[in-house]
């Protein structure tokens, strides 16, 4: 099975100023020659486009010019006063008018398409923009592997409760409790002393 061949590269079209100059010169050549050289512009069009239609128009214009020359040459005298002479003049100027209109329309359309094809070709062969020249780095996405398996998330392990440190009473509170105990001891000692003295006096 054969693949498709590569497309032929499109040549860069001439500058617009050059194309306008060539068109003006060829049209002026046909007009100033009274239509006898109208085929020159069609010849240039057929060579540039290489289309069978343009070649057929060139052959028709050349045949019309030759026929008009024959009709005018068969006219007796210098003045045109026969139907053949009038037909030759009409055919000559009609061919000139048709050649000018057809040449300008076909030539403009051809080079416009060539310019569009050349622009598309330039875009097709343009190198990709480098991230080092544009200043932006493309995002890096790793390709997924066929053997890579997404790990399942594990539940968190229960943490043992941390015992709270024993709270120690403040030193001032200890001193206060100690003082109260001392006062209570003195009070009990005195109270016991009074009770012992009362028992001895009763005896």
Automatic annotation (TrEMBL):
<feature type="transmembrane region" description="Helical">
    <location>
        <begin position="55"/>
        <end position="73"/>
    </location>
</feature>
<keyword id="KW-0812">Transmembrane</keyword>
<keyword id="KW-0472">Membrane</keyword>
<feature type="transmembrane region" description="Helical">
    <location>
        <begin position="20"/>
        <end position="43"/>
    </location>
</feature>
<keyword id="KW-1133">Transmembrane helix</keyword>
<feature type="region of interest" description="Disordered">
    <location>
        <begin position="130"/>
        <end position="203"/>
    </location>
</feature>
<protein>
    <recommendedName>
        <fullName>Integral membrane protein</fullName>
    </recommendedName>
</protein>
<feature type="transmembrane region" description="Helical">
    <location>
        <begin position="85"/>
        <end position="105"/>
    </location>
</feature>
<feature type="compositionally biased region" description="Basic and acidic residues">
    <location>
        <begin position="175"/>
        <end position="203"/>
    </location>
</feature>
<feature type="compositionally biased region" description="Pro residues">
    <location>
        <begin position="152"/>
        <end position="169"/>
    </location>
</feature>
């Amino acid at each position: 099975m054969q693949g498709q061949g590569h497309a032929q590269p499109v040549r860069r079209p001439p500058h617009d100023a050059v194309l306008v100059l060539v068109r003006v010169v060829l049209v002026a050549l046909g007009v100033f020659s009274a239509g006898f050289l109208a085929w020159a512009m069609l010849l240039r069009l057929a060579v540039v486009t290489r289309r069978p239609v343009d070649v057929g128009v060139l052959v028709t214009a050349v045949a019309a010019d030759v026929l008009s020359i024959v009709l005018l040459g068969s006219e007796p005298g210098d003045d045109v006063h026969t139907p053949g002479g009038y037909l030759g003049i009409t055919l000559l100027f009609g061919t000139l008018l048709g050649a000018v209109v057809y040449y300008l329309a076909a030539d403009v359309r051809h080079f416009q398409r060539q310019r569009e094809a050349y622009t598309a070709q330039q875009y097709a062969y343009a190198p990709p923009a480098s991230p080092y020249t544009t200043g932006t780095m493309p995002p890096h996405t790793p390709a997924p592997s066929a053997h890579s398996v997404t790990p399942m998330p594990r539940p968190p392990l229960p943490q043992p409760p941390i015992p709270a440190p024993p709270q120690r009473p403040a030193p001032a509170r200890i001193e206060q409790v100690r003082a109260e105990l001392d006062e209570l001891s003195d009070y009990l000692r005195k109270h016991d002393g009074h009770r012992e003295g009362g028992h001895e006096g009763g005896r």
